[in-house]
Amino acid sequence: MITMIPKARFNFLFKSLLLLISFTLCIYSAQAQGILSQNDLSNFKADALTESDISQIQQQLKSKGFTIDQVQDQAVAKGMPLSEFTKLKARLNNAQKTGGKKNPLLKLDDKMSKTKGDKRNEDDTLGFELPMFKKINPLIYGSELFSNENTGFAANQNIATPINYIVGPNDILKLVVYGVQEYTSDLQVSKEGRVQIDNVGQVKVGGLSIEAATERIKQQMARTVYSSLNSGESKLALTVGDIRTIQVSVIGAMKSGKYNVSSLSNVLSVLTEAGGPNEIGSFRNIELIRNNKVESKIDLYQFMQYGDQKQMMSLKDNDVIRIPAYGSRLEIKGQAKRPGIFEPIANETFKNVLDYAGGFDDTAYTALVKVIQKTDKERAVKDLIASDFEKYIPSGGDVIMISKIIDRYRNRVKLSGAIYRPDTYELFEGMRISDLIKKGDGLKEDAFILSVANSSQYGNEAHIAPRAQLQDGLLDLVIVKPFPLYLMPLLALRMFLKTADQSKYFISLQGKSILINRNNNVIHLDGEPKLVTENIQIQILANAINVIVP
Predict the structure, then answer these.
(1) Rounded distance, CA 64 to CA 62, Å?
(2) What is the rounded CA–CA span in Å between residue 158 and residue 172?
(3) What pLDDT was estimated at residue 10?
(4) Is pLDDT of 152 > 80?
(5) What domains are defined for the chain?
(6) What percent of the chain has pLDDT over 70?
(7) Which of 85, 332, 392, 484 has the greatest number of CB atoms lying within 10 Å of its CB?
(8) How far is CA 60 from CA 69, 108, 377, in A?
């Protein structure tokens, strides 16, 4: 059915939808969504708001009778950094003190707002719009590393000074001499990389590791007034007090630019701050450029797969982290533990990529996968069998489909009726009825009749096993369960009509050999009573009798 919508109404609905998608401020209540309608506020920047934006937020909160403090929990729960919320609160409070002017609500683009017949109520809208920050596709393997800003990858300022830490300008070094002689001082590293020590003079430590700087200071102090350092009567300790700030550049990230970070930062901590690779950025070939040369290449898959941090080098001032475009990507769909988009590098096989996906899940059909390939003109389908998983080199644009196993069984047999454990059991080659009954803990003692037949009738056209055949090489075991006496005429009639096997009181099984474990009592052998004191083994002997017909 096709429904026609007037143009004015269509435009109104369209703009309303856009407003719902926009970055908006909401009314705080028990049912409210929070200060901002976005589910993810991790990229909120208070400094990006104009004075007009601040004024409109203030007016919106005031009109509903709420304060900024009342919406804090909602905003933080949606990922807004507490520092950004504090900035927002400060700007609102400052605007209140200065008596900021009321500004009209910002409108949508003129092309949308000037539609004829549009009666949108501006009072029901928010006072501003914020830019929508792009988020990396969650299907891309590795995106979880950068899904939020609170990853814990930031440089730890409270750790002991690493022995490989390189001293640089503006570092504050804490120098302590203890023992026979004592001396304590905070030494600031100058732009030239030197520190000034009382009664010793200047010592150049810039560019040295903290370990090497310690040794150099010790040597120069020992040559002057601190001779006890030579004899070991005094000891010297040098640590970094205030960590200096360095500037690094990031190219090809979600938020590319220059970053002022701690000198303890490494590649991963800065990548996290920059939001990780952008929508076309590589996770496998990230470059650390130092002094206009590629110092190192970083493969984030090595970190994600094995926790390998050897590539996560410490950064220096003016380092550049460059994220090039990816070389190729493929997608794994279906029954993998972690379906998604992956970035194979040269010579990696499907097996390698499957490992990145966590392998097959528990319901996967593992004998074969389908590869939808991209050719120059069209797509093609390739059946990839298990023996080729470690040989096939995937191409960019491949879509690999992993299907489920078929919901059927290849080796089961169902045992039901007058048995102690009716159930589904494993069917194995050469299995006999006796084996199956043994798995079911034997027949119930309340069986009325147990009959073994190689033909269908008892005699006189009474068919106890109507499906039995002399030529099939199988014995038919018929179990008649106890039944009410009033049903005896009906069951007898069924035997003469050859429908006994359709009664719920009849159970039929087949086998070439039947073992009956029994107590001492009488059996009937072809209608003749016979006392048997041992278990009965009944089986078919093929071609045991030669019949000569005249």
Answers:
(1) 5
(2) 15
(3) 46
(4) no
(5) 7-124 (no CATH), 172-240 (3.30.1950.10), 245-322 (3.10.560.10), 330-402 (3.10.560.10), 412-539 (2.60.200.40)
(6) 78
(7) 332
(8) 14, 18, 56
Q: Which amino acid is at 326?
A: Y
In this structure, the dihedral spanned by the alpha carbons of residues 291, 294, 296 and 300, taken in order and rounded to 10 degrees, is 120
Residue 87 has pLDDT above 50, yes or no: yes
Sign of CA dihedral 73, 78, 83, 88: negative
For residues 385-389, average pLDDT: 95
Distance (Å, rounded) from C-alpha 403 to C-alpha 336?
Answer: 9
Place of tokens 């803990």: 441
Please count the CA atoms within 13 angstroms of the CA of 506 that sit on its side-chain side: 24
Within 10 Å of residue 14's Cβ, how many Cβ atoms? 12
pTM exceeds 0.70 for this model = no
3-state helix, strand, coil in the chain (%, to 5): 25, 25, 50
Largest Cα–Cα distance of the chain, in whole Å?
136
Locus of tokens 């520190």: 195
Strand-pair category, 399-402 with 330-334: parallel
pLDDT tens by residue, 297-346? 999 999 998 888 777 788 889 999 999 999 999 999 999 999 999 999 99
Residue 6: the pLDDT is: 47
The band of 519, judged by pLDDT with boundaries at 50, 70 and 90, is low
- Pair 252, 323: CB distance under 8 Å: yes
For 245-278, what is each residue's pLDDT tens digit? Answer: 889 999 999 999 999 988 888 899 899 889 999 9
The two three-digit tokens of residue 172, written as one number: 């504050």
3-state DSSP of 333-395: EECECCCEEECCCCCCCHHHHHHHCCCECCCECCCEEEEEEECCCCEEEEEEEHHHCCCCCCC
Pick the more confident residue, 519 or 395: 395
Give bridge partners of residue 383 from the DSSP assignment. Answer: 370
- What DSSP designation does 466 have? T
In Å, what is the CA distance from 63 to each residue of 56, 124, 469, 497? 10, 11, 91, 89
Percent of all residues in the chain with a pLDDT value above 90, rounded to a whole number: 33
DSSP 3-state assignment of 531? strand
> Computed from CA positions of residues 445, 449, 455, 456, in that sequence, does the dihedral angle turn out positive or negative?
negative
